[in-house]
Design brief:
Length: 207
């Protein structure tokens, strides 16, 4: 029994050490990618910053692209949580749905989000709508749309279709803001259009 307990403790310590190593590499990469961009960031420099070796990076993430995926997942997950928090402060489900989308679009002004998630992410990882973190956002939006349909606030359209279109609109608006030379100006246009488009789902316009 003591031996099995010792093995369990050792296994737990190894798992904790691996998680600590991953966290260090993600933190270092997040800083480097934000400051220099993914392409210009040096693997030797970011591993040295974390006090680790290239071997640790390869072991935990496979390669530099795998590390970028982990960083994007972390930041995009934080963005989703912040957007949901904005929704939770709204007066009702409909206002919450709008607040969540608008909050996501507004984050495109933040340098770290802009460079890592909205510029380098799509360029090196492909279609953002296929990222795991985006699927989590979709499920949250889907549940809200279903409630609004049940309450008679939103038209009885297909809930998944509506959720996908709303999330797609917010994501593409954020990508537009991030790529623009006039992000503040584009943000105002994008938010206004998002609200108008979403409003088309209402049973009673202008609710």
């Amino acid at each position: 029994m003591r031996m099995s307990g010792g093995i369990a403790v050792a296994g737990k310590k190894r798992a904790e050490m691996m998680e600590e190593t991953r966290a260090k590499l993600i933190g270092s990469a997040r800083k480097a990618f934000a400051e220099k961009g993914y392409a210009a960031a040096s693997m030797d420099e970011l591993t040295a910053e974390a006090g680790l070796t290239r071997g640790a990076l390869y072991h935990n993430f496979g390669d530099k692209r795998g590390l970028l995926q982990a960083v994007v997942d972390q930041i995009d997950g934080e963005m989703a949580a912040r957007a949901r928090a904005a929704a939770s402060r709204a007066a009702n489900d409909w206002e919450g749905l709008l607040a969540e989308g608008v909050a996501y679009i507004e984050m495109a002004l933040e340098p770290e989000v802009q460079r890592i998630v909205l510029l380098d992410g799509p360029a090196f990882l492909g279609d953002p709508s296929q990222w795991p973190s985006q699927n989590n956002c979709l499920q949250a939006t889907l549940e809200t749309v279903k409630r609004l349909i049940g309450q008679g606030i939103v038209k009885p359209v297909d809930a998944e279709a509506a959720a996908r279109l709303l999330n797609g609109a917010a994501l593409n608006a954020a990508l537009w803001v991030a790529a623009s030379d006039r992000p503040q100006e584009v943000l105002a246009k994008a938010v206004e259009a998002f609200r108008v488009l979403a409003g088309g789902l209402l049973v009673t316009p202008g609710r």
